[in-house]
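Action item from last week, closing it out:
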Amino acid sequence: MGPTPRGARRRGGTHSRRLRRSLPLVVPLALAACLGVSTRAADVVRVGVYDNPPKVAIDETGEVSGLYPDLVEDIAQHEGWTIEYVAGTWTESMARLDRGEIDVMVDVARTPPRIPLYAFNEETVLVNWGTVYARASLEILSLPDLDGLRVAVMRGSTHTEDPGGILDLAERFGLDIVVVEHDSYQQVFRALSEGEADAGVVNRVFGIVHEANYAVARTPIVFNPIELRFALPLAGERTAGLIERIDHYLSTWKADPDSIYYAALEKHLLAAARPETIVRWPPWVLPALGSAAAIILVLVLAVLVVRREVRKRSAAEAAHRRAEERFALAMRGANDGLWDWDLATGRVYYSPRWAAMLGYEPDELEPSIDAFRRLVHPDDRERVVQAEELYMAGRADRYQAEFRMLHRDGLYIDVLSRAFLVRRESDDAPVRVVGTHVDISERKYAAAQLEEAKERAEEADRLKSAFLATMSHELRTPLNSIIGFTGILLQELAGPLNEEQRKQMTMVQTSARHLLALINDVLDISKIEAGQLDVVFEPFDVVELIDETVRAARPLADAKGLDLDLSLPSAPTEIESDRRRVGQILTNLLSNAIKFTEEGGVSVHCVVGDADLTISVTDTGIGIAEKDVPKLFNPFQQIDTGLTRRYEGTGLGLSICKRLSEKLRGRIELTSAPGRGSTFSVTLPKRGPGSER
């Protein structure tokens, strides 16, 4: 048989956990040596495993444990097999299955892309979902919140690559995500904890069991329900026989509540997950359940009163009727359907709302659990029954299932069912199950409406962008012509001007430049708000840029008799940012400082740190009251307003500065006092995103 692959352990069917690593090999090897045949004995089953606790786990010594190993080894014990575990990553294990190097691969989702590639056993081992987790400090509530984020995934997982996986959902929702691939779910959680990713996709079982060990937060995003089974080589010599034996034991176990199957579920999934599981009910559920509990209590008391005191029968019935009316009103307000299953008689009560969801009147439905199950979609029926059995047996801490039910018109609707078990006080025996149905179709309709509204908004945004692009051309062209021709006239290239003509031409040129600046500001803020303003991170000397900007602003300061001081580092300082936009921010701040300063001066300072730099513009102008600071960076907001205002402007400059600073991954801050001046400080990172220097 050869040496055991690295990271693997042999397990035999007739030996203890410790001994079956080596003893079962002696007889097969000796017999093979005598007969001169292949060293691989017929009773050796090679099982591919990858580290994905609690379903399958591989410790540092190569020891294999978990739900699947427990099931595999129980079969091996009955069949007399020797199990040879072949460990690797998920990708390595599936490649071995492709090449026929292993007989069985555990924990494989039976998905449409894999059905033509592998053989699967018929009995489902588990149903699992994909779940999105976030960094502990990041709130993610829905799929659109992933747009622009780094998403960690396990390479080759069905929740990553198959239809219904995160890549498929991102494409369907038009999300721009950065996919960060890893070889295991542990690495996905580690990437979230260490800030290497913003969100991560794991299977729900792994997440519930291990989320407490990492700095991660579970989001409401659950998707891609899949059936987990055993996968085998499509054309393997032993495939048919192994499938028959595996399905035989799985079906036998599922029929026996005391079997190894339920014991393994309890040990590796339910018991491990229960302490960490926090049930977050929607706000309307607790009042509804409280009302349900109150009704049940009234019903039980009414039955006792009827048995003991016949004379009070009518009063008890009246109280019961009033309670039913109150409960019906509560359920109608919650838009839920109620079902009540009496375990002793097998009869089920369906509320009018429950029946109406399926297009029926209450008296048209057979009051039995079998009628309930017949309406469940055939593909969902086994899963629903298993969920009921697990909950009834106390192996699940709650009952909640999503499935399809047949409507009277022949179509299926999506239903979310939740229920709780009512026990008899005397001996704690289960007596009834009371549950609710929510139609998650109405929610899909609302989602479709939302998507339609989103498309309309995007179309309106596209029209606005097209309008702005057209107007920018139509307005800028004549304004540039006006500015250019007035410049020619002022230079007297077309002939001499008298003093009045020069004065009028200067006014025309100044007004045209003011209007062009206004148009540029409006276009910039529109592009920023529409997310269409691009910035380019390239290296440049920020000291040179500051010096150029201050020299350009000096004539404005000289015209008002203001000092303009500049303090810069002595050596060139290179940063990676958008040179044009940094210059735009500094020009706006300098123009504002000079505009709102009547005496004294303006100073510009640049302080360079290890990872960032700060450019400060300080003036001795009018200052800003603390109450006015919050609205200062809002578009079209000015402190000096009304017909008597002294200072011109659109109120867009500071808003643009703030938005541009954020686009450049920086921030802008203000300190000010009325009558004493203001200091605006812009802090920018020295390196652009993705830089390795």
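Closing note: The mean pLDDT is 79.
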